[in-house]
Amino acid sequence: MTAAIDIEIASDAEPLTVRQALREATALLSSAGIESARLDAEVLLAGALDLDRSQLYLHGEQTLPARAQERLRSFILRRLNHEPVAYIVGRREFWSLDFLVTPAVLVPRPETELLVETVMEYLGQFRNSKFEIRILEIGTGSGAIAVSLAKEIGNAEIWAPDISPGALEVARTNARRHGVEEKIHFLLGDAFMPVRDRTEFFDVIVFNPPYVRRDELDTLPRDVREFEPRLALDGGPDGLDFFRRIIPEARRHLAAGGFLALEIGADRGQEVNLLFVDAGGYSPPRLYQDYAGKDRVVVARMLI
Ligand code: SAM
Ligand code: GLN
């Protein structure tokens, strides 16, 4: 494998055109059993050239500069070791925005866009009204959810805690990148701790908690298991630790009529529903399905 790369993609080899490099890179990744070889090759090549993926095809016949060829080679070696492409190129698109991503944060998932979408739908007419909307996003990670909501909701003020200092640094950079740093307070600490002294209530509490069952962590794909932060994935022995804690506790922080929106593991909908019922004080929770048809988001309002 390495020999092939040295021959085809080393900087002292024949220069390749963008199209040829894409073909070589795809072949190498797919022969190593990487499922999304073509897509990954496009993202890595675009990263090596500092282009957007969509721009690659405009440059198909151009020769790859030696520096880009060398970068591509090192990117491919990393991908062959199963490092996620988002960490290699340092970015991932979420909600059509470009986010900085480092190994300190979970790579934002496309399914999590459903959480953002559901929050927006629930806010309905209050979005962009004259009332300020106070949002708490626990476990902000890369800041993907908080920044997307800040971009969409003109009248939002957002509090975004995380227990990981490294993640908060990434989130702050993303808020600056998208010009919403004034609207988000990034706070270090455990769950509700950083806002425990606030006297106002939140209209929205949103959380994509770690929800992988602890004994399943070692069965996750290598890309996730070996590279993404455990702190972002480990949901305790049955994957429900955070739900058990957050659902009852959120009642003390939610305004009447406000709502709690959570991402959940597929197939956990009924158990999470029961936790809402046990906690009391909520409207019957509603489940929403992701594009794969799996339960992925649950929302319940605080009764007035
Ligand atoms: N919000 C991001 C997203 O949706 O892409 C990241 C979600 S990730 C599944 C869970 C996040 O919760 C991680 O950033 C992790 O550091 C954070 N976290 C874990 N335990 C926490 C705790 N006790 N209090 C606050 N945040 C916590
Ligand atoms: N969807 C993630 C996975 O790859 C889990 C994210 C989470 O625990 N919130 O398994």
Please provide a written account of the structure.
The chain is of the alpha/beta class and 304 residues long. The protein contains eleven helices and nine strands. The chain is elongated, with a radius of gyration of 22 Å.
Principal-axes shape call: elongated
Largest sheet: 7 strands, mixed
Count of DSSP strands: 9
Helix/strand-derived category reads alpha/beta
Return the string of H and E elements. HHHHHEEHEHEHEEHHEHEE
- Overall pLDDT score: 94
Rg measurement, Å: 22 Å
Which range does the strand content fall in? 15-25%
Spatial arrangement of strands, main beta sheet: 5-4-3-6-7-9-8
Structure summary:
This protein is an alpha/beta fold and 304 residues long. It has helices at 2-9, 18-31, 37-49, 66-80, 85-89, 113-123, 144-152, 165-177, 222-227, 241-250, 269-279; strands spanning 91-94, 97-100, 133-138, 156-162, 184-188, 202-207, 254-263, 286-289, 295-301.
Keyword list:
disordered N terminus; elongated; alpha/beta; 304 residues; binds glutamine; 11 helices; binds S-adenosylmethionine; 38% helix; two-stranded antiparallel ribbon
What topology emerges from the helices and strands here?
Elements (H helix, E strand, L loop, with lengths): L1 H8 L8 H14 L5 H13 L16 H15 L4 H5 L1 E4 L2 E4 L12 H11 L9 E6 L5 H9 L3 E7 L2 H13 L6 E5 L13 E6 L14 H6 L13 H10 L3 E10 L5 H11 L6 E4 L5 E7 L3
Parallel strand pairs: 3-4, 3-6, 4-5, 6-7
Antiparallel strand pairs: 1-2, 7-9, 8-9
Helix pairs in contact: 1-4, 2-3, 2-4, 3-4, 6-7, 10-11
